[in-house]
Amino acid sequence: MLHRTWLDRVTDWINIAVLLFISIAMIIPFLYIFSVSFSSMEEYLSSDFILWPKVWVTGAYEYILANDKFIKSVFVTILITTVGTLLNLAFTSTMAYGLSKKFYGQRLFLFMVLFTFLFSAGIIPTYLVVKETGLLNTIWALIIPVLISPWNLIVFSQFFKSIPEELNEAALIDGAGELRVFWSIILPLSKPALATFGLFYAVTHWNSYFTGILYISNPNLWPIQLLLRQIVVINDTSSLITEQVLTDPPPAETIQMAAILLATLPILIVYPFLQKHFAKGVMIGSVKG
């Protein structure tokens, strides 16, 4: 058994204390948002800092979920996130698989990818391209310009290179084509990479904010982050009202907190289902002998 000195024990306690402090510092803001969103007007006005409401009130959530704009904004964000992530994974994985193979002109294509990674066109040229291609005020303006991430592409390509070439050769000898090898062998072995990059792409689309400001001027196509900007930053909770007008609306601050919580909740729910794939070693034992 490894002998531990008093210095090792002190170091462990310091690490525990630091991690505990960081955890509390990260949890308290979420707890505050959660508590304020369920607080009544009287309690919110009488308290400077709320960590647990005395009386639970759901008026802010009823106020938000009773209007069409918020529901439509969530639907647009879900559509962008779902379609965008699937297309991101499809284009990134196929191009990465191609770059992982040796072929004539491979260095040229790799240089083009690295060039776009180091040097971007800028906001104005990108906006002009989106405008001239007719993508303004469409959800495709938030998907196509970010279809492939150069960094994810390079990392994905290195992941494919780590897959033993014997698998490809065995499949090709059995009569499978490159597309069949990629679909039936490579992708099933790439679940950890697909889950990781899928989560990265999904979070990027769900938090799509700046591109929405640039390319979307139609309020009916606002993703949830643009509506949150209207509610939280501009402090315009009246933008949620459509036909219905509440005679006694909840405080604007509780509406803001409830909107933030509802916009964050889907990603928090999805993450635990993908986390198990991050460090899962599916390649272990795939090739024997």
UniProtKB/TrEMBL annotation:
Residues 74-274 form the ABC transmembrane type-1 domain. It comes from the Bacteria. Gene3D superfamilies: MetI-like. The keyword Transmembrane applies. It is found in: Cell membrane. Keywords: Cell membrane, Membrane, Transmembrane, Transmembrane helix, Transport. It is a multi-pass membrane protein. Its main location: membrane. PROSITE patterns: ABC_TM1 (PS50928). The keyword rRNA-binding does not apply. The chain crosses the membrane at residues 12-34, 74-96, 108-127, 139-160, 181-203, 255-274. InterPro entries: MetI-like (IPR000515), MetI-like_sf (IPR035906). Pfam families: BPD_transp_1 (PF00528). Belongs to the binding-protein-dependent transport system permease family. This is Carbohydrate ABC transporter permease. It comes from Paenibacillus chungangensis.
